[in-house]
């Protein structure tokens, strides 16, 4: 079963316990020049993500710069009062814009579950998830996180970045970018963008990382239930936790970073109680 199918099955089990809030609105970043932020894995600049808000204030986030997703969302954004679970199922059943809408709604439902169960993931104190790069260590990166490259290279590690964009491929000073995911097979640690959850490359990339004892997935899109990811070998999931809803949404729509309206969190198999435990806490 795919990650998407497992994820939605969990949300269906949650919905069977109690009615879910309906969709309130989809919030989009402002329009920018076509080339602004296209290679935004380097720290997730403004304009890469949308936020879907449920009627109880729960918010989910998703990357929106795949293909023409953002342009199509601007043209068709009539989601007010839509049934949340029905929309979330598009993550499994749909393609393109439908898959993105399903995913971001699923993430909003996850936040609803966490809140109702009284679960708050611990804050992250490290942008590279405790990687601790060592001299000579082979480290892989899926998606170019440009601002994190110096921390890895300066430590003396050998960094290989896997990108889908062929225009980024080539040798750099102390590191390289390739489109060949097979090069991840010799890496002991891998840092990945959470965009894998949207572009149908998750299982393929994880298949090339069987020799990695450390696989971290980070990004605002990573606000999903982690059970099926941990079962596949992900060792840490790092996402964004919105704690000032109105100010966060206002900043997103203006193209601002949002300041202290959200913080980064981390989930590991040790810090996460598990989906079944969250369901038990609902009572």
Account of the protein in words:
The chain has a domain at 3-121 and 243-259 and 273-281: Enolase-like, domain 1, CATH 3.30.390. Helix content is 29%, strand content 19%. The strands form 2 sheets. It has an 8-stranded mixed beta sheet with strand order 6-7-5-4-8-9-10-11. A 3-stranded antiparallel beta sheet has the order 1-2-3. A hairpin with a 3-residue loop joins β6 and β7 (175-178). The model is unreliable at 34-46 (pLDDT under 50). It is globular, with a radius of gyration of 18 Å. The longest helix has 20 residues, at 97-116. The chain is built from 10 helices and 11 strands. It is of the alpha/beta class.
Helix-strand sequence: HEEEHHHHEHEEEEHEHEHEH
C-alpha termini separation: 29 Å
Give the name of the CATH architecture of the domain at 3-121 and 243-259 and 273-281.
2-Layer Sandwich
Main beta-sheet annotation:
8 strands, mixed
SS content category: alpha/beta
Considering DSSP H and I runs of 4 or more, what fraction of the residues is helical? 25-40%
Shape: globular
Instruction: Compute the number of helices.
Output: 10
Q: Tell me how many strands there are.
A: 11
**Average of pLDDT:** 91
Supply the CATH class of the domain at 3-121 and 243-259 and 273-281. Alpha Beta
Which value, in Å, is the CA radius of gyration?
18 Å
CATH topology of the domain at 3-121 and 243-259 and 273-281: Enolase-like, domain 1
Low-pLDDT residue intervals, each spanning 5 or more residues: 34-46
| Major beta sheet, strand line-up | 6-7-5-4-8-9-10-11
The portion of residues forming beta strands comes to: 15-25%
């Amino acid at each position: 079963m795919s990650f998407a199918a497992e994820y939605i099955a969990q949300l269906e089990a949650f919905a069977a316990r109690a009615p879910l809030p309906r969709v309130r609105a989809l919030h989009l970043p402002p329009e920018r020049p076509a080339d602004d932020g296209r290679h935004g894995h380097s720290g997730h600049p403004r304009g890469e993500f949308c936020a879907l808000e449920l009627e109880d204030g729960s918010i989910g986030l998703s990357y929106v710069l795949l293909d023409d997703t953002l342009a199509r969302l601007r043209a068709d954004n009539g989601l007010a009062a839509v049934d949340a679970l029905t929309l979330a199922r598009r993550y499994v059943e749909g393609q393109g814009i439908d898959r993105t809408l399903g995913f971001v709604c699923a993430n909003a439902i996850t936040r609803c579950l966490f809140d109702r169960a009284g679960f708050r993931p611990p804050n992250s104190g490290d942008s590279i998830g405790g990687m601790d790069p060592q001299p000579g260590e082979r480290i892989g990166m899926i998606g170019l996180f440009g601002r994190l490259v110096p921390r890895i290279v300066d430590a003396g590690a050998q960094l290989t970045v896997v990108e889908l964009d062929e225009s980024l491929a080539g040798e750099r000073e102390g590191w390289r970018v390739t489109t060949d995911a097979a090069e991840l097979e010799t890496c002991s640690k891998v840092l990945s963008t959470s965009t894998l959850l949207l572009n149908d490359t998750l299982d393929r990339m994880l298949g090339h990382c069987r020799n990695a004892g450390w696989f971290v997935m980070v990004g605002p899109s990573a606000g999903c239930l982690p059970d099926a990811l941990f079962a596949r070998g992900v060792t840490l999931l790092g996402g964004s936790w919105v704690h000032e809803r109105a100010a966060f949404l206002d900043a997103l729509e203006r193209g601002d970073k949002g300041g202290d309206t959200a913080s980064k969190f981390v989930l590991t198999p040790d810090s996460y109680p598990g989906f079944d435990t969250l369901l038990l806490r609902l009572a």
